[in-house]
Write a sequence for this structure.
């Protein structure tokens, strides 16, 4: 191999299975290199974006020329007249490029016939508006920034295969402005949420994503192995127990974390194995304080993302204006079915009542699980407008304080919008003896086959023995909230790279 060859790595040889369109582009790539053009240069000094030029020259009349020089870069989305007219798209929008021999330097003119839709180029030139009113840059130089070796999907049909959109998100983002806007709005929602909490004196923290004990929620964990320590670790299902340890330690009275959690569960339009949540804890508050905070956060981010607190989802108008109704779980089940679970004291009778209501009952459910099953089957999907559902059973809430009036219940609520759980909050259990007893009951359930029951975390109980102040805790599912605020039918639409079954 010669020194010259060493500086120009050989192009991948075509096989019989190569797409002929790709072969044409590979040939153009070789031609570019033969001309001494680097098709993948290190950088390009871009000075403006399309939207910035649109704003600056909004009043420039049709047919007017300027002496202003622009330096732009983007992806070619259309080529007309053998490269004389190019539609160049960047992250902010589109601008037209006019590449004519009267303006373009001679050494760049051969490049025009080697351009393809999808290529990334840099352009320097003078700004004008065509007689038809199109803002245009008269190119004086054109620089190849990245030669695209595969054609984009056909312009007018776009990327119609939904599965392909999720698997090749980069193509989806190139072709579908709505997909770009959805993910950008997601970013604004998270930023607004963070800004609201920081403005209200919450301290942002980070806690481990690898846990020795999977705790903080009823869910199956993912398991991994640490080679150096030779121990199994679990991807976190919730940051709850570590965040409350920080409150015990007095790091701050108000802490929050926005980060990923992982649950080894099925896939659905509302479930992804890895998801993003906000979780926060506030000392000297309780679950009623968390209700007001939930309303305030959701209304704030809706305003930031959509400009208002009335949003449309699936053709239904959702009014997010606080305050929202507060109704007990058993009360809602009674209203929907006529069955009063609060009047039932025996677990077997509760199971039979739930089975009569059409719930899938295995026969091992306790009273609280039977009530929850009835609620899920007969109430949940009817909760369209925002509502806080209170009065959760103690049986399914091992980390929440007992209700002040009914020891079968706890001070917990879940917020529902459009039939989905959006938020979950407690008055946090801070009695270490009660917490140990709750964990031990969970361990018995686990031994009986409940894989989602929470294991005993000795260190967390030890932390409580040093004193956790009265505390309100709140978790908000960011992915579902983004679905609501972007009118997205599937959680896969709001996650840049959702989990998919391998082909």
């Amino acid at each position: 191999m010669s020194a010259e060859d060493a500086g120009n790595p050989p192009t991948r040889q075509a096989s019989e299975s190569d797409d002929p369109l790709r072969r044409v582009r590979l040939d153009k790539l070789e031609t570019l290199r033969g001309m001494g053009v680097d098709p993948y240069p290190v950088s390009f000094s871009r000075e403006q974006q399309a939207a910035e030029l649109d704003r600056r020259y909004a009043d420039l009349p049709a047919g007017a020329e300027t002496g202003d020089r622009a330096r732009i870069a983007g992806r070619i989305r259309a080529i007309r007249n053998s490269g004389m007219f190019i539609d160049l798209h960047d992250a902010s929008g589109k601008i037209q490029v006019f590449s004519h021999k009267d303006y373009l330097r001679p050494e760049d003119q051969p490049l025009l016939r080697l351009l393809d839709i999808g290529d990334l180029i840099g352009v320097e030139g003078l700004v004008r508006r065509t007689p038809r009113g199109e803002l245009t840059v008269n190119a004086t130089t054109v620089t190849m920034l990245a030669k695209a070796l595969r054609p984009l999907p056909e312009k007018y049909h776009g990327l119609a295969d939904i599965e392909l959109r999720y698997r090749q998100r980069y193509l989806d983002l190139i072709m579908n402005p709505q997909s770009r806007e959805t993910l950008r709005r997601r970013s604004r929602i998270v930023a607004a949420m963070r800004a609201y909490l920081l403005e209200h004196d919450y301290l942002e923290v980070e806690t481990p994503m690898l846990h020795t004990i999977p705790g903080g929620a009823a869910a199956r964990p993912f398991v991994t192995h640490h080679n150096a320590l030779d121990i199994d670790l679990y991807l976190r299902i919730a940051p709850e127990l570590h965040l409350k340890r920080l409150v015990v330690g007095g790091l701050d009275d108000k802490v929050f974390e926005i980060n990923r959690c992982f649950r080894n569960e099925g896939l659905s339009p509302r479930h992804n194995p890895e998801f993003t949540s906000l979780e926060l804890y506030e000392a000297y508050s309780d679950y009623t304080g968390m209700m007001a905070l939930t309303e305030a956060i959701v209304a704030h981010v809706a305003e930031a993302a959509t400009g208002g607190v009335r949003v449309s989802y699936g053709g239904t108008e959702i009014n997010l204006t606080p305050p929202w109704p507060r109704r007990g779980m058993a009360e809602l089940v009674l209203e929907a079915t006529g069955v009063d679970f609060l009047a039932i004291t025996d677990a077997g009778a509760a199971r039979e009542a739930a089975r009569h209501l059409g719930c899938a009952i295995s026969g091992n459910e306790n009273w609280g699980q039977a009530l929850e099953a009835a609620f899920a089957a007969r109430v949940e999907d009817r909760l369209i407008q925002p509502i806080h559902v209170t009065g959760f059973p103690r049986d399914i809430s091992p980390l929440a304080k007992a209700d002040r009036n009914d020891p079968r219940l706890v001070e917990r609520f879940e917020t529902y919008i459009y039939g989905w759980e959006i938020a979950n909050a407690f008055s946090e259990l801070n009695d270490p003896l009660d917490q140990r007893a709750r964990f031990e009951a969970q361990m018995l359930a686990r031994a009986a086959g409940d894989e989602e029951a929470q294991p005993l975390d000795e260190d967390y109980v030890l932390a409580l023995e040093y004193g956790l102040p009265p505390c309100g805790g709140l978790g908000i599912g960011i992915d579902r909230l983004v679905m609501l605020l972007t009118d997205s039918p599937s959680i896969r639409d709001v996650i840049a790279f959702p989990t998919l079954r391998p082909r």
